[in-house]
Amino acid sequence: MQLFENFSPESKIWIYQCNRPFTQDEIQNLNITCKKFTDSWTAHDIKLKASFAIIFNRFIIFCVDEKIEGASGCSIDKSVHLIREIEKQYQVFLLNRTQVAYIENDHVSACPLSVFTKLYETGKVNLQTVVFNNTITQLSQLNSDWKQPLAESWIANHLPVLNK
User: For residues 79 and 92, what is the distance between their CA atoms, to the nearest angstrom?
Assistant: First the structure.
């Protein structure tokens, strides 16, 4: 998966994970909403080279090529405002960082960290289970560090079985 091909590898990204998959109708509407937003996104009245992607029906990713113009605090606030509006409109959670997304039977699933810990303790997920690292901030990391085995992820630090 190669996203944002015309953007520099140092481009800034923000990943918002939904607590449930979006429907096809929702994705169609989100594509319109996010395109309108990124097409008009500015920092200090300067147009940003920005784009978005909706991946696995669950993740909204914004990208800004900061080699052209950097995103400012106010411009980032605009994107968070949009995400909050999407949360209200679709009755979803996109800003909850305690949700863990992982690949299960070639399908992306998500659950709270506390539930994921129980899945690990019961053997339903293991150290090779692929999880999503939504803390990455650069486009170059999207292909190399976004999906990673549980054992190499930040989540492993929160598994009590591993930290005894």
Answer: 16
Which amino acid, residue 107? H
Quick check: 116 and 102 in contact, CB under 8 A? yes
Task: Quote the pTM value.
Answer: 0.92
Written as six digits, the tokens of 131 are: 């999880």
Higher pLDDT, 43 or 2: 43
pLDDT band at 118 (very low <50, low <70, confident <90, very high): very high
What's the length of the chain? 164
CA triple 143-85-80, angle to 5 deg: 50
Please report which residue ranges of the chain form alpha helices under DSSP H: 24-40, 73-90, 113-121, 139-145
8 Å CB contact between 157 and 163: yes
Q: In what helix (H) or strand (E) does residue 143 lie, and over which residues does it extend? A: helix 139-145
Angle between the N-to-C axes of helices 73-90 and 24-40, in degrees from 0 to 180, rounded to the nearest 10: 160
Q: Residue 78 forms beta bridges with which residues?
A: none
Token pair, residue 42, equals: 């500015």
* 61, 13 Cβ separation under 8 angstroms: yes
CA distances from 83 to 30, 134, 150 (A): 11, 15, 27
